[in-house]
Structure formats: C-alpha cells, structure tokens
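Morning!

This is the sequence you dropped in the shared folder:
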Amino acid sequence: MRYLGALRGSGMLEQDGRPVGRADFEFDGYLVRRGEVVASGEVHMDSAQLADVFGSNGLTLRTDDGRVLSLRFSGKRLLPQDGVAHADVREGLPGEDEWRR
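The structure's back. Tokens below.
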C-alpha cells in the first residue's frame, strides 16, 4: 500500500441521487495494487443532515469540481451533535498521478 496524497474540497452529499446537504471533505488516497486506488477520511456537514443518512446505502458525494465519489460511512455510531463522520471511498477517485502531496 502506497500513500498518494490528499483530496480536499466541498460538494453535495446525495442518497440515491437525491440531495442531502452540502459537505466538506478530506480524504487520504492509497494505491493498494496497480490501478486500484482507495481513500478514507472525514466528511463534515450539518449534524442533523449527517444523522439522517449515517449508516445508509447509496451515498455519493458530488464534488464541486465534478467528481462523483461513492462513499460509505465506516464508523459504528454518530453522536447527535457530531457534524463529522469517517468515510471510505472506492469509486470515482482520481488516478494515482492526480493526488496532491
């Protein structure tokens, strides 16, 4: 596994294609095997909106720069006041040469 760099920005969190709310994100990318990039990090957004979709399937983050990241929240639980959750991303990520170090 090789660290590729960070992916940061903002976008719209969606569930099954429906907007949930604006979110900021910061993911660290890794090359796990040739041609396979994965990422994990944090999603920050309104705590009530986050609580509504935490643990749900069909989540995507449509970034302001045009990417559509398929994500899954990886934490076991979310405190009601938390506006941040850990997430894993496997689809829609940049290629290994496009990451910021």
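Headline: DSSP finds one helix and six strands in the chain.

More detail when I'm at my desk.
O.
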